[in-house]
Design a protein that fits this description.
Elements (H helix, E strand, L loop, with lengths): L3 E9 L10 H10 L4 E4 L11 E3 L2 E4 L1 E6 L2 E6 L14 H13 L3 E4 L20 E6 L4 H15 L5 E5 L18 E6 L4 H9 L3 E4 L6 E6 L2 E2 L3 E2 L6 E9 L4 E6 L2 E7 L5 E9 L4 E9 L3 H14 L10 E6 L2 E3 L1
Parallel strand pairs: 1-2, 2-4, 7-8, 8-9, 14-21
Antiparallel strand pairs: 1-10, 3-4, 5-6, 6-7, 10-11, 11-20, 12-13, 12-15, 15-18, 16-17, 16-19, 19-20, 19-21
Length: about 325
């Protein structure tokens, strides 16, 4: 079956935990963003007993297992244990994750290096299918998540990256700024819970700023993100970027090495397409970055520290959109 792109938000909260919208209100808000799917992940609560459709909108069952030592999203099944959960040690997390895994869940580690509610123990080798690299609006902690994820890839671990808005409430009345910011575009066979979650586990996702923002397609012949290709000299990847913003930088990585870099001009580019040669075995991925300057940079850093609790002393370049890899063996 031919794969298609489906756009969704993987991390959302309702009044059943600590959000301010009812489930119905949240579904309508996601419909207004023209999403194809959403995952409701209330803290330690099964707000959705089983996945369902509301019109064309797929609402996937989920829960955010939440403890002082870290947060884990469980998608697609009911957590096979009743709260309150014992989450005092890493072993406690391993035990409940294993129960969810055996029940058929897709497991994602949430905002692992968040300044306010990141993991308080080493997450290397902690089981997960996915990691939430991009949580809520872009900020410095996400770039730390990104570095950890890339290091896992460099060590041969095929952990898929996802993004989620972690929406709880409207910060500006009447404007749902955080829903689908970011948006996870999933390349799946159909818009069903099984197909969407399988595609996310396989690394067939692109994470971008919003449903109507910059989008990247990365292919190698008939291969797409998440696929494995036989490496040989003279093999090329093809990249197609839509809605490329002014003064944004496109970087194609072959493992940790940039093999192609392009900075857009002062004007918006509707479509930018190119190819580049893969230099070595491993993986290829694409990211698009931008950087705040001057007064705006200082202002954003101040807001980041005040609202998001960032403890970082500087503001790095941020990601506008990025892909999971194609693998070369």
């Amino acid at each position: 079956m031919e794969r298609k792109w489906f756009k969704g938000d993987t991390h959302l909260h309702t009044i059943n935990s600590d959000g301010l919208l009812t489930k119905g209100q949240l579904v309508e808000a996601c419909k207004n963003e023209e999403l194809d799917f959403m995952i409701i992940t209330d803290h330690n609560c099964n707000s959705v007993k089983e996945s369902y459709y509301d019109g064309d909108m797929l609402v996937i069952q989920g829960q955010e297992i939440t403890g002082d030592n870290g947060h884990v999203n469980i998608w697609g099944v009911t957590v096979p244990e009743e709260p309150p959960y014992k989450l005092d040690t890493r072993e406690d997390y391993e035990n409940i994750i294993e129960k969810c895994r055996k029940a058929g869940a897709t497991v994602s580690l949430n905002h692992p290096f968040c300044s306010m509610c990141g993991f308080r123990f080493d997450i290397d080798d902690l089981y997960c299918d996915c990691v939430e690299v991009w949580n809520t609006i872009q900020h410095t902690d996400n770039m730390i998540n990104r570095t950890w994820w890339v290091n896992q890839l460099l060590n041969g671990k095929r952990i898929a990256a996802v993004g989620g808005s972690d929406f709880h409430k409207e910060y500006v009345p009447g404007i749902k700024l955080l829903i689908a910011s970011p948006t996870t575009f999933v390349l799946a066979e159909e818009n069903t819970p099984e197909s969407i979650l399988r595609a996310m586990r396989e690394g067939r996702s692109v994470i971008t700023n919003s449903p109507k923002s910059t989008m990247i397609e990365l292919t190698c012949g008939d291969a797409v993100i998440g696929d494995t290709v036989k490496f040989e000299k003279g093999i090329y990847v093809n990249i197609s970027i839509t809605k490329l913003m002014p003064l944004h930088t496109v970087i194609v990585y072959n493992n940790e090495k940039p093999i192609y870099t392009y900075k857009s001009g002062a004007k918006y580019t509707d479509c930018y397409c190119f190819s580049c040669e893969v230099e070595e075995k491993g993986f290829v991925r694409v990211e698009i970055t931008y950087e705040y300057k001057g007064t705006l940079k200082k202002l954003y850093h101040t807001v980041e520290k005040k609202i998001l609790g960032s403890k970082n002393n500087s503001l790095p370049p941020f990601i506008r959109a990025f892909t999971n890899p194609i693998w070369f063996e």
